[in-house]
Amino acid sequence: MKKQVIFIHGGETFDTYDEYIEYLKTTEFDPDKFKPKLWKDSLEEELGNDFQVIAPVMPSKYNSKYNEWKIWFEKTFPFLENNVILIGHSLGGIFVAKYLSENDFPKKISATYLIAAPFDDTDSEYSLADFALPLTLEKFEGQGGKIFIYQSEDDPVVPFADLEKYAKALPTAKIVVFKDKEHFMQEEFPELIQSILQLRKEGI
Length: 204
Description:
This protein has one domain: Alpha/Beta hydrolase fold, catalytic domain (Rossmann fold), CATH 3.40.50.1820. The chain has a 6-stranded parallel sheet with strand order 2-1-3-4-5-6. The mean pLDDT is 92. The chain starts with a strand and ends with a helix. The protein has helices at 17-26, 43-47, 66-74, 91-102, 138-143, 161-169, 190-201, and strands at residues 3-8, 51-54, 84-89, 109-115, 146-152, 174-178. Helix content is 31%, strand content 17%. By secondary structure, it is of the alpha/beta class. The protein is globular.
């Protein structure tokens, strides 16, 4: 049986529609954000034939709403087997953390990876709106399997201080710090691939 991996991508969120419109008007177009192939696009290829990657395109990526994402995320549940691996990048990371802190996941989770995930918006210019985390992540820690928190010191989007907040809220998580990955928008991510393959080798 193939090992299943669910990947949740990032997005933008705003407190009001007017703020979203202002963002669209003032943000410069960056062609580097639309590279034809990033590490997340080649996960299944890199992991190999023993893995199935499920990567739902979440609703309204540029004006994301937690409840919309929650509904769409739960559409994957009928297709899942036990011992699934969850990966959340950026806003997808805090989405996974929030969902698993507030809801019972229907299958056993073997591991969860939060990559460049914001913890709150106190040290940043952006708002997390309805993606804000609950007061405790205890439920997430109890059902998230082996939890990994990946962050880069030079991330221009998510403050590095958020890593320490996750470490405090999830004391059993494995913290992995990079120096030069920025917001993890590179074409390859061998460290993640190796970590997942090692879990498979260990029977996790």
